[in-house]
Specification:
alpha/beta, 5-stranded parallel sheet
């Protein structure tokens, strides 16, 4: 058994994984398919050495890029080696849209017992990603003082790319009859840590019915990387962004409390491609 966390909210995924670590019998890893081999190994933590020892597809003299490619070309074998470390626990790992091809993602989901789908308002997610690239850090720091320039072409490209991978992941889960447990980033950050943990547990139980939380209460508050909610406060050219969002029908996404449906986001892409 394995549990895939399919994440479309980079700034919320680390916090979600910290909540999943509270859930027994999950064994939680981070970005085990990252495009940099050293980050893959970090994502595997203490089990990296066991996994990378005597890989069946490794070739003597492989550089990091070659070895990483061999791993992502054989994702199911890679996960099964991870699963074999401890059959009593459930290896749980996150995948971002750019970590695997659509074919690789489908294979991983078909081999898993279920998918936790972490979503976030795509406008907010895009800005968060732009800020992270600007500062060079994807999590663990307060970026509330950072602003980025809103570029419509990059935004539409991001939404289009993300939607395609989201649809691919959902189709793979549907075709393999796998349970999908949706979790919205906005719901997590607005709740107490106890409520966050219970939300996550409720979702995970559709995949791991015996999942449990510690008996003692949780006192730590939610981790919020950026305290601003309004998207206009996060960009250096808010009027340009406002005009573009109005033109593509996405103004409702700016307040950070609401999201658009997948069909509405697809329409945003359709209009945005024409405008860009």
């Amino acid at each position: 058994m394995s549990l895939v966390v399919l994440s479309f909210a980079r700034s919320g995924s680390t916090h979600l994984m910290s909540l999943l670590r509270l859930v027994a019998p999950l064994r939680v890893y981070m970005e085990i398919f990252h495009y940099r081999l050293e980050i893959m190994k970090q994502g595997l933590g203490v089990d990296a050495e066991r996994i990378f020892q005597d890989l069946p597809w490794a070739v003597s003299g492989d550089d990091s890029d070659s070895l990483r490619k061999r791993i992502v070309d054989n994702p199911v074998e890679y996960i099964r080696r991870l699963r074999a470390i401890d059959e009593a626990t459930v290896p749980t790992f996150k995948i971002f849209p750019d970590h695997l091809s659509s074919e690789g993602l489908r294979a991983v989901i078909a081999d898993a017992h279920g998918v936790v789908l972490l979503t976030r308002n795509l406008l907010q997610s895009f800005i968060s990603n732009e800020v992270a690239m600007q500062v060079g850090v994807f999590g663990g720091i307060d970026t509330s003082a950072q602003r980025v320039a809103f570029e419509p072409e990059r935004f539409i490209g991001f939404v289009d790319f993300t939607l395609k991978h989201l649809q691919s992941g959902l189709a793979a889960a549907r075709d393999a009859s796998r349970c999908v447990a949706p979790i919205a980033y906005e719901d997590l950050v607005d709740a107490s840590r106890d409520d966050q943990a219970r939300q996550v547990l409720d979702r995970v139980r559709c995949i791991v019915p015996a999942a449990t939380l510690p008996a003692e209460p949780l006192h730590d508050g939610p981790t919020v990387q950026d305290r601003r909610r309004d998207a206009y406060d996060k960009v250096s050219n808010p009027e340009r962004m406002r005009a573009f969002l109005r033109a593509v029908g996405a103004e409702a996404a700016a307040d950070g409390r609401r999201d658009l449906t997948l069909d509405e986001w697809a329409e945003v892409v359709r209009i945005g491609v024409r405008l860009c």
